[in-house]
Amino acid sequence: MTTTFPAPHTPADRAGGRRQTARAALAQYLRDHDPLASADLDVPERTWSRVGTGAGADIWLITWPAGSSTGWHDHGSASGAFTVLTGSLTEYVWTGVARASTLAERSVREFDGSHIHDVVNHGTATAVSLHAYAPTLAAMTRYELVRGRLQVTSVEQRDVAW
């Protein structure tokens, strides 16, 4: 699979360095593996699986049946990057208001540790994406949109909730 990765962000601050690490881990994983070979496109609900580590990051494969969503969340202190392998995904980013962008196949999205988003498959077919988090993904904060504001509903810890 060929995916074009954007040029690194500058300056290479801590978050920028973590985004670079995540992007490099995705690129390395895609050079060495065919993640679609192990993806089950017939699953009835969104699934996620840690498929490896590389270049200082965790690598996760996520399968998105039509209509599935993450809900509003962040990735704790981890920065990350993800690429859409098949299908398309819509990412809603919270900046005080929700801003949406659609990511087509081979799109790459990078984010830092302060990134809050909800990712949705609005399509009619299953989508698959590959994600990298640096440092490793240890916690996720969940949010609910209440009267135009996000409120924390829970903090999930790795190996406890997922």
Automatic annotation (TrEMBL):
Organism superkingdom: Bacteria
InterPro entries: CDO_1 (IPR010300), RmlC-like_jellyroll (IPR014710), RmlC_Cupin_sf (IPR011051)
Record keywords: Dioxygenase, Iron, Metal-binding, Oxidoreductase
Gene3D superfamilies assigned: Jelly Rolls
A Pfam match: CDO_I
Residues that coordinate or bind Fe cation: 73, 75, 117
Iron in keyword set: yes
Molecular functions per Gene Ontology: ferrous iron binding; oxidoreductase activity, acting on single donors with incorporation of molecular oxygen, incorporation of two atoms of oxygen
Record carries keyword Iron: yes
Stored PANTHER family: CYSTEINE DIOXYGENASE (PTHR12918), CYSTEINE DIOXYGENASE TYPE 1 (PTHR12918:SF1)
Family from the record: Belongs to the cysteine dioxygenase family.
Protein name: Putative metal-dependent enzyme (Double-stranded beta helix superfamily)
Protein species of origin: Nocardioides cavernae
